[in-house]
Specification:
A hairpin with a 5-residue loop joins strand 4 and strand 5. By secondary structure, the chain is of the alpha+beta class. Helix content is about 30%, strand content about 20%. The strands form three sheets. Strands 1-7-6-5-4-3-2 form a seven-stranded antiparallel β-sheet. Strands 9, 11, 12, 13, 14 and 15 form a six-stranded mixed β-sheet that branches. About 40% of the residues are buried. It has three domains: about 130 residues, Nuclear Transport Factor 2, Chain: A; about 55 residues; about 250 residues, Cathepsin B, Chain A (Alpha-Beta Complex), CATH 3.90.70.10. The structure holds 2-acetamido-2-deoxy-beta-D-glucopyranose (2 copies). One 2-acetamido-2-deoxy-beta-D-glucopyranose binds next to helix 11. Pfam families: Inhibitor_I29, Peptidase_C1. InterPro entries: Cystatin_dom, Cystatin_sf, Papain-like_cys_pep_sf, Pept_asp_AS, Pept_cys_AS, Pept_his_AS, Peptidase_C1A, Peptidase_C1A_C. Belongs to the peptidase C1 family. GO terms for molecular function: cysteine-type endopeptidase inhibitor activity; cysteine-type peptidase activity.
Length: about 475
């Protein structure tokens, strides 16, 4: 991927030396820090620090992707934004420069998005000459701008990557029409991968996965989570979240280390994520209750749960109810997975676990989720899987607009949580450990680490669990 990025991102940079901030500029900066009310039209207004940090990170990523100045963010003190010809964002921050020295800097990002070279960045760091840089607003623009030979080269590059992809994932297309179509989707997905990488706020890397020749619609169908209608009661009780006995929650916890999580399974090309999410939850609860780790049957749910739609999707809440009505779950070995709906052949004498009901965890409260997980076991969740299609590892924290909290399309299982420290970046990333059902070759041996604390990709929108009988 690196090579592809390098081949298509053109960076435009002019580094010029300027004097340190003038008295007038200092005055201007101090005015920035005044309240909202005395700001005239066209004046600068305080700007959300988190958003400013995001914008700055994106800008730094774009610069370092080429040969731009290398800075890392340590801390953002304050930010303001001003409507100029375009917008001018001023960020007061501690940065680490290319020589690993930390400095207090005022960064100004002047954006004129309607212009081709629409971003001008100035770094004015304490005791340092100012540095001026510029980057183009988009890769597409850069692609258009670079001449034919370059285009030709990157086209070959895509062809080559596509060829490697076909071999690695054993793709055979029916005819040349399908081949062309898949190549087109693949090329589009390379752009999406780049966009995810450019805007990543955690430590995740996105690259070519076995889903790289699928459209997002095909991929979503394959995941197979239905949307829960907001106004309809789910029939689940509100989860009682017991307060944690000590003042502070453990920094990390992992049910895999307590022998409560089975091996990573693979749903295949069937939209049955919901069934895997549910069996994972029940496997955990059962192991914690009995001390015995067993795999339970998803196929029984595909065949016998008539509320859900087998390979065409379903909801975890429906499945808990169905298990209660059917009379329990058989073992995986007795009722093996076929990735296809068949006749129901549930045998009551082989029912090894029964369900009394289910609970819905409070929405948008990840602390409550942590407490519940510690006290009870793994949690079924729905999330937006946009960033999962191309996930290759790390703590995934995609930029909000690339992963809407409302578009939940995948059912998975939270089995633990932790915190990753990146001392070089002065950054700590809290995360959830998420068990997926796409086989052990996907992600981090079948697992996904997703940022914890700001409802990334909707992780806390649809958190549920069965209650065992
Ligand atoms: C149900 O399972 C039991 C135990 O394996 C077996 O003896 C019985 O024949 C099965 N019933 C049916 C209808 O298959
Ligand atoms: C989140 O849940 C915890 C534990 O149940 C509770 O103490 C806290 O008040 C909740 N926070 C919010 C914002 O609802």
């Amino acid at each position: 991927m690196k090579m592809y990025v390098a081949a298509t991102v053109a960076l435009f940079l002019l580094a010029t030396i300027q004097t340190t901030p003038t008295a007038a500029e200092e005055q201007e900066l101090s005015r920035d820090r005044r309240g909202l009310n005395d700001v005239p039209l066209g004046g600068s207004k305080p700007f959300d620090e988190k958003q400013a940090e995001e914008q700055l990170q994106q800008t730094l990523d774009k610069l370092t992707a080429g040969e731009g100045p290398h800075y890392k963010i340590v801390k953002v003190y304050s930010a303001s934004r001003q409507l100029v010809s375009g917008t001018l964002t001023r960020i007061d921050a501690d940065l680490i420069d290319g020589n690993e020295e930390q400095r207090r800097c005022i960064v100004e990002i002047w954006a004129q998005p309607w212009l081709a070279q629409g971003h001008e960045i100035t770094f004015k760091c304490h005791n340092q000459p100012a540095v001026h840089a510029r980057h183009s607003r988009s890769v597409e623009w850069a692609e258009k701008k670079t001449h034919k030979k370059h285009n030709h080269h990157s086209l070959n590059k895509v062809d080559h990557l596509f060829h490697v992809f076909q071999i690695k994932y054993k793709r055979r297309y029916a005819n040349s029409v399908e081949h062309q179509m898949r190549l087109r989707i693949f090329r589009q997905n390379l752009r999406t991968i780049q966009e995810l990488n450019d805007n990543e706020q955690g430590s995740a890397k996105y690259g070519i996965t076995e889903f790289a020749d699928m459209t997002s619609t095909e991929y979503t169908q394959r995941a197979g989570l239905w949307q829960r209608s907001e106004d309809k009661p789910t029939g689940g009780a509100a989860a009682v979240v017991p307060p944690y006995p000590s003042a502070e929650l453990p920094k990390e916890f992992d049910w895999r280390q307590k022998n409560a999580v089975t091996q990573v399974k693979n749903q295949g090309s069937c939209g049955s994520c919901w069934a895997f999410s549910v069996t994972g939850n029940i496997e955990g609860l059962y192991a914690i209750k009995t001390g015995e780790l067993q795999e339970f049957s998803e196929q029984e749910l595909l065949d016998c749960d008539s509320t859900d739609s087998a390979c065409n999707g379903g909801l975890m809440d429906n499945a808990y109810k169905a298990i209660k009505d059917i009379g329990g779950l058989e073992y995986e070995s007795e009722y093996p997975y076929l990735a296809k709906k068949k006749q129901c052949h549930f045998n009551k004498t082989l029912s090894h676990v029964q369900v009394a009901g289910f609970v819905d965890l409070p929405k948008g409260n990840e602390t409550a989720m942590q407490e519940w997980l510690l006290a009870n076991g793994p949690i079924s969740i729905g999330l937006n899987a946009n960033a999962m299609q191309f996930y290759r590892g790390g703590v995934s924290h995609p930029w909000g607009p690339l992963c809407s909290k409302k578009n939940l399309d995948h059912g998975v299982l939270i089995v633990g949580y932790g915190v990753s420290d990146y001392p070089n970046f002065h950054k700590t990333l809290p995360y959830w450990i998420v068990k997926n059902s796409w086989g052990p070759r996907w992600g981090e041996q079948g697992y996904y680490r997703v940022y914890r604390g700001d409802n990334t990709c909707g992780v806390s929108e649809m958190a549920t669990s069965a209650v065992l009988a």
